[in-house]
Design goal:
Layout (H helix, E strand, L loop, with lengths): L6 E12 L2 E12 L3 E5 L6 H8 L7 E6 L2 E2 L5 H7 E4 L11 H6 L14 H13 L15 H14 L4 E5 L7 H18 L2 E5 L3 H7 L2 E6 L2 E6 L1 H4 L2 H8 L1 E7 L6 E8 L5
Parallel strand pairs: 3-8, 3-9, 6-7, 7-8
Antiparallel strand pairs: 1-2, 1-4, 4-5, 9-10, 11-12
Helix pairs in contact: 4-5
The structure holds adenosine-5'-triphosphate and magnesium ion.
Length: 269
């Protein structure tokens, strides 16, 4: 099966899980070029599982993923890594690595036969460090960083890979509100100015509504809502998917929906 070219990533009747346990069942999703898509849903709903499967970090047990119209299983690791970078939810790496050494790894898919880094690689690394505000941390070891600084180092690694598609699993975790907005503004800049296609998992529904063109809501491994934020972020959805009562207002600046959650239905008196 081949996809129309504007679909840079496509999941076709995807099934994925761990061992005998199926988490994602019969899920189909198309990602159009140049969009910011927010994946939202309760804890354990399968967001990370879906993201990892889309990036081929986890094999699908059934169905297929198409990257630019080609079955991702037919592509080499290098070809996939030049197209798609992923920031996993809980990446682990030898803590003794410095930030610079970590970010350098993003250039491996572009390096020559002996793994030599060239001028354009060093320039991509410097740019990724600068965009994430990590330049001054380049020689610091990862285990000496705060949670938020480490998170930004991982984002720098994904940016250094310089791919047209970027998948990020909770990129704002550990970040204070200022750095959260800085990262989200950076992603918006990369999307608008460089045409990057971005899929990100977010728990903050208001940020998802403000920064994404499209929200995809997962519940128990299935897509239960998919569309523009105004259509997706409703009080009915919040009740059905998250079990909370909430009012929805319009952001006075952007017009995007803002939810004010009031009560968890299960604990309401
Ligand atoms: N490595 C694993 N082995 C076995 N089960 C797993 C593994 N990783 C996740 N799961 C299970 O798969 C289900 C979906 O997990 P997943 O991490 O995809 O959820 P999520 O939507 O990303 O949740 P969160 O918002 O908490 O990050 C959960 O029930 C989880 O316990
Ligand atoms: Mg997760």
């Amino acid at each position: 099966m081949s996809s129309p070219e504007r679909f840079v990533l496509e999941a076709d009747r995807l099934q994925a899980g761990y061992g005998d346990r199926s988490i994602i069942a019969d899920l189909s999703l198309t990602i159009e070029q140049g969009n910011i898509t927010a994946l939202v849903g309760p804890n354990g709903s399968g967001k990370s599982t879906l993201l990892k499967t889309l990036a081929r970090l986890l094999s699908a047990t059934k169905g297929a993923i198409y990257l630019n119209g080609t079955d991702i299983n037919c592509l080499s690791t290098t070809v996939v890594a030049r197209q798609l970078a992923i920031l996993p939810q809980a990446p682990n790496v030898p803590a003794s690595l410095t930030v610079g050494e970590l970010v350098e790894q993003g250039r491996f898919p572009h390096a020559g036969p002996l793994g030599m880094l060239h001028r354009q690689d060093h320039s991509a690394i410097s740019q990724a460090l600068s965009l994430t505000g990590m330049t001054e941390f380049a020689y610091r070891s990862l285990d000496s960083l705060s949670g938020g600084e480490r998170q930004r180092a991982w984002i720098a690694l994904a940016l250094a890979q310089a791919t047209p598609i970027l998948l990020l699993d909770e990129p704002t975790t550990f970040l204070d509100i200022g750095h959260q907005l800085e990262v989200l503004d950076l992603l918006r800049f990369l999307n608008r100015e460089r045409g990057m296609t971005i899929i990100l998992v977010l728990h903050d529904l208001n940020q998802a509504a403000r920064y994404a063109n499209r929200m995809v809501v997962l519940k128990q491994g299935k897509i239960v809502a998919d569309g523009i934020p105004t259509n997706v972020l409703t009080s009915v959805l919040l009740e059905q998917v998250f079990g909370v009562r909430a009012h929805i207002l319009a952001d006075p600046k952007s017009g995007t929906p803002v939810c004010l959650p009031y009560a968890c239905i299960s604990t309401e008196s």
